[in-house]
TrEMBL record:
InterPro entries attached to this UniProt entry: P-loop_NTPase, TPR-like_helical_dom_sf, TPR_rpt, TPST-like
Record's protein name: Sulfotransferase
TPR repeat positions: 181-214, 283-316
Keywords assigned: TPR repeat, Transferase
Amino acid sequence: MSGSTVKTQKSPAQSSALAAAASLLDGQPEAALAQAETMLQRMPGFPAAEFLACQALRRMGKTAEALARLAALARTQPRVPAVLWELAQTASEAGDTGAAISALQNLTRLQPAVASGWFLLARELRKSGRDDEAWRTDLSGVHASAGDPELLNAAMAMNEGRLDDSSSALQARLKRQPEDPAACRLLGEVNWRRGDMTEALAWVERALEIAPGFDLARDFLIRLLLQNNRLPEALEHADLLGASPVKSPGHDLIKASVLVRLGQQDEAKEIYERLLAQQPNQPQVWQNLGHVLKTQGKQADAVHAYRQAVSHQPTMGEAWWSLANLKTVKLGPDDISSMTQALASLEQNEADRQEDIFHLHFSLGKALEDARDYAASFRHYDQGNRLRRGLIRHDADDFSAEAAATADTFTAAFVAGLGKGGCTDPDPIFIVGLPRSGSTLVEQILASHSQIEGTMELPEMMIIAGRLQSRLDDGEFPDFRTMIASLSPADRRRLGEEYLERTRVHRQTDKPRFIDKMPNNWQHVGLIRLILPNAKIIDARRHPVSCCFSGWKQHFARGQTFSYDLSDIGRYYNDYVGLMAAYDAAVPGAVHRVIYEDMVKDTERQVQRMLHYLDLPFEPACLEFYNNDRAVRTASSEQVRQPIFTDGIDHWKNYSEWLGPLVNALGPVVDSTTATS
């Protein structure tokens, strides 16, 4: 708080005496009071000495006496911020909320650019039940913080990548001002950029403890919770954000994103439709509505929504890709012309909009593929992939080494030596493999069974595996095998129970079994078997070149960093085949393999084999999976709402002359059909 001294004319001797007494305040308040009273005996009414006496009394716990004297001092010194600040703090400690509010209102009028006064005022307003005023007051404090030079410098350091400098400055500030929510939120972001999610969450939560009306901090917290898949907490905070007295469409949008993640598509749809009824020219909202409608199987409505998005913003690459990515929709010559113009405009004038540019390349690749212009199609797919590859991190060598270490760990002898353990609940059915391998078809077939609930691609197993990997990365164990061997039967049971508890939020029915269709879980089959020994695992597999090429020309919303280079995806497929072979050798029959081409040729037999593996009776509904109206969020959402068709099985051959890097990376598995287990 600026203006920390009472401004009266003082002689050098008086200034020296005051400074000496003030230095005693924190450690020896009684001595400070004695010196102040001595000065007041010589100079009755001397404001600086009276102020010092009041400060000492508060530190001694004599708040009633301090409050009475400060109130009198404030009447003679009504425009001295330090007096009002001390009066407010003393009144707050004495439980006199009214006096504290009055003092802080006067203080913030005098010093509107000093955030600490606003935040203290908001706390006092909450004590008196004036919640809306408190919320707005917190927002005034946030606004004041935006002009604070120290915070601006810390933010600049963070944005320039000097995270240590920013963190040091913020830590020093918080040591002086521990009740500074803006500094807490900013320190949370610094830790998030460092990759320390635990610290990031702690600091942002601290900011909201101090200033519950800090809407930007709550918005950031929701995004952090979404990244950690803590969906019920994210929804709770989204509801709180929606109650802000300062309304914003952004609050509705982030709640809708939480609802989508929770599988509550109808509620999200209502939000988007309400926002569009209020203001129809919002391309982002039209696009989001299209995503929900696609997931619900309302294809015609989804097409309308995506076309509305691109009509309002022709350069909106993701909306074009969303249209192109509807596998049963073909973009015509007019669309190709519009996308080509949009791409030229972006490349000439807005090269920083890389996401729009690579989305348009993928979209043109699909449109030209449908037009059978395969050479032009490949050029656009290639350019889109090259742009996307430059924006993500994927080290094929490191990944291959991790896959090899996992294969070397989960040998038959190692697994047998661990003995029994884990959570024995049989609920989960994991469908693993590469994207575009037919896993969504397998999921839709199984989710049509009366005893199986389809959910979505759940990240919980990857979160658990990532946490274990971090123990290795932090040097707690010398290698992967030692880390896995350290898990006791109780540890494994606890981890299995954690998985079931974390996934419970996605289960909307009372069906006894549920599907987790995260394809990347093939990397964690060994861990799954350790912590959930009775879970079932289905490996969905497709012809190597067909699967890899389909993945390469598919732009994924997130993850799948291996898929933007033909050599990378070929190596990834090799790693996958090698690790799954190691699992098969270690525990024969534990994983059931479904070959997509076999499923297409003889669906009924393959369905019977899967259900036999799952110890479930055959049900005809599994063959009529296309009548199941459940929400499907993957790229194959429209295809699985139709009977099986064979048109796409050999489609990759139209591009065979350009697939040399993929074929070379696949090596000996290039022609493998991988016999079923």
